[in-house]
Amino acid sequence: MDWNHYRFRSLWPLPAPAPDVYRALERIEDYPHWWPQVREVTRLDDTSGVLRARSLLLYDLTTTLRNGHRDPAAGVLDVEMDGDMEGWARWTITGRGSGSLAHYDQEVVVRKPLLRRLAVPGRLLFRANHRLMMRDGRRGLAARLAPGRRAV
User: Fold this and answer.
1) What is the DSSP string of 17-78?
2) What domains can be seen in the chain, in order of their start residue?
3) Could you tell me the strand order of the sheet in which 5-14 lies?
4) Chain segment 70-100, per-residue pLDDT in tens
5) Those residues with Cβ within 8 angstroms of residue 97's Cβ, 6 or more apart along the chain or in another chain
6) For residue 8, which of 21, 64, 77, 106 is within the disulfide window of CB 3.0 to 4.6 Å?
7) Which of 83, 128, 86 is nearest to 106 (CA)?
């Protein structure tokens, strides 16, 4: 087993139609406005940017994201990731009643030296940290997209 390899899946029920969710998730530069653990996003060009995140644990993860597959009609957003984490992440947004469901899938290998050294004893804590980050991201985006809020 590679202790630095992770697969994550999250499901976010959201109170907005799938096209609105897609547009919000597509604009990574806005993530710090609604996702507390996303501390900074710097656009490099129209197809890439650098994201810096920090959750409960006292370390930053800095990752360069490059657009992969984009399909607004199917609700699919893919990115390739390099840096402290290498791999890919994918959002798939589908309609669900008057709202939507955002499926998040991610497969990465951690490259940050500190986290690699702590891979075995820290694995459960790292996974819990990721769950916390995803929970807060869902809450932040749900609040941003809530009925009565301005359009994103």
Assistant:
1) -HHHHHHHHH-GGGHHHH-TTEEEEEEEETTEEEEEE--SSS--EEEEEEEEEEETTTTEEE
2) 5-145 (3.30.530.20)
3) 5-14, 99-110, 85-96, 76-83, 61-71, 48-53, 38-45
4) 999 999 999 999 999 999 999 999 999 999 9
5) none
6) 106
7) 86
